[in-house]
Design goal:
With 123 residues, the chain is mainly beta. It contains no helices and 11 strands. The strands form 2 sheets. Strands 2, 4, 5, 6, 9, 10 and 11 form a 7-stranded mixed β-sheet that branches. A 4-stranded antiparallel β-sheet has the order 1-3-8-7, with no helix packed on it. The chain starts with a strand and ends with a strand.
Length: 123
């Protein structure tokens, strides 16, 4: 069982930055591929970014590539999402998730989820 707790959301203006963190309870944190997803009102949850077990490889949705950076610290059982050049379309609840799969992008591939943190970008 893995418990995930996100933090760092908030309100920011267009062009601003926010950094999200997700703390995991699992002693085997490094065994999981970690991902960030987001869900805007009335929309489906969508993949944002993922990072390999070691942290050596990351992959992103096209909509955030070049603006967002995912990273992890296995010693601290924490995964991060640095978000720069934010736009109103980035407004959503952001979730971190853990998967035993390799390079997963689908919601169904992730077994464990945090409760989410709200990110609001004003125009």
């Amino acid at each position: 069982q893995v418990q995930l707790v996100e933090s760092g959301g908030g309100l920011v203006q267009t062009g601003g930055s926010l950094s999200l963190s997700c703390a995991a309870s699992a002693r085997t944190f490094s065994s999981y591929t970690m991902g960030w997803f987001r869900q805007a009102p009335g929309k489906e949850r969508e993949f944002v970014a993922g990072i390999s077990r070691s942290g050596g490889s990351a992959y992103y949705a096209d909509s955030v590539k070049g603006r967002f950076t995912i990273s992890r610290d296995n010693a601290k059982n924490t995964v991060y999402l640095q978000m720069n050049s934010l736009i109103p379309e980035d407004t959503a609840v952001y979730y971190c998730a853990a998967s035993i799969s390799t390079w997963p992008r689908s919601v169904g591939a992730y077994a464990y989820w945090g409760q989410g943190t709200q990110v609001t970008v004003s125009s």
